[in-house]
Amino acid sequence: MKSFESFKGVIYAVISSSTFGLIPLFAVPPVLAGMPVNSVVFYRFFFSAIAIGLVLILKKIDFRISRREFAMLCVLGILYASTSLILTSSYFYIPSGTATTIHFLYPVVVSLIMALMFKEQSSMLLYGAVVLAIGGVYMLSGVQQGAEVNVIGYLMAFSTVLTYAGYLVIVNRSCINRMNGLKATFWVLTMGMVIFFFNTMIQDGYISGFPDTKSVIQVLMLALLSTLVSDLTLILAIQRIGSTITAILGCMEPLTAVCMGAIFLGEKCSLTQGVGVLIILCAVILVIYSSKKKKANC
């Protein structure tokens, strides 16, 4: 049974990172069409919170949470909202591939935090998977082909490494790890929605409307697929396989971004990127093998 739960956790982690990888595909076009970044991110959390709230009502799941859970969810909401806003904004300062590569340093930070602060034992296979995953993402992004140097963009991308790593660790090591996945996701998204409402009103003074029907569809897809589905499966993955393995499997995020760009945006996939894809797949296989080996030794 434990082995099956671990396998489900790996699948959830792959789904989560893959749907996260669709964020630029849905978020950038509305901004280019004239919507402020703050409004796009607000609608992302607004629609996803409403959708999962309806699911909770249909499933008759209790919305109530304890004071301790509320405090943890507030922290998680701030960390997740910060990651979302800063990473999306960094796309307009540096190439998205560069931002993604920098952001993907978070598995290293998660591994270090879990090992140093919580004494989590990690095998050499997992450390090897981390190295492979980061190397694969580097090749996938095309950073070696030259990227625009923008200090603000780089600082923004680096800050998301810390905020997202903190988010993953807290979900794993707090009372949220024992909550119902749907309810935990609802409250994280609701916290994010509230944060972005005030952020948008303070910075822009208003919530922007949609410039066209296409933008409405793109923001809805951003909210339902790249937020609701990705956040829910992320929490479910952490509850089953922990934050370290979940973080490493996040390598599917840039892989998805490159594949979607090639399929829907007509972007070319170079030989270097193809090698990056193979390296990432090897990292995923290493994680799965390591997980199975760990369970077998228990």
What does this structure look like?
With 298 residues, the protein is mainly alpha-helical. It has one domain. The protein has helices spanning 2-20, 23-32, 37-58, 67-90, 96-103, 106-116, 124-141, 151-173, 181-203, 213-248, 252-264, 271-297. The longest helix is centred in the last third of the chain and has 36 residues, at 213-248. The model is unreliable at 144-148 (pLDDT under 50).
How would you summarize the topology of this molecule?
Blueprint: H1 2-20, H2 23-32, H3 37-58, H4 67-90, H5 96-103, H6 106-116, H7 124-141, H8 151-173, H9 181-203, H10 213-248, H11 252-264, H12 271-297
Key traits:
79% helix; 12 helices; mainly alpha; 298 residues; globular
Summarize the structure.
It is built from 12 helices and no strands. The longest helix has 36 residues.
Silhouette: globular
Number of DSSP helical runs = 12
Distance between the termini: 13 Å
Overall average pLDDT: 82
Order of helices and strands: HHHHHHHHHHHH
Please give the domain count: 1
Query: What is the rounded Rg?
Result: 19 Å
The oligomeric state is single chain
Query: What proportion of the residues form beta strands (DSSP E)?
Result: under 5%
Low-confidence stretches: 144-148
Largest sheet: none
Helices and strands: which structural class? mainly alpha
Helix content: over 70%
Number of strands: 0
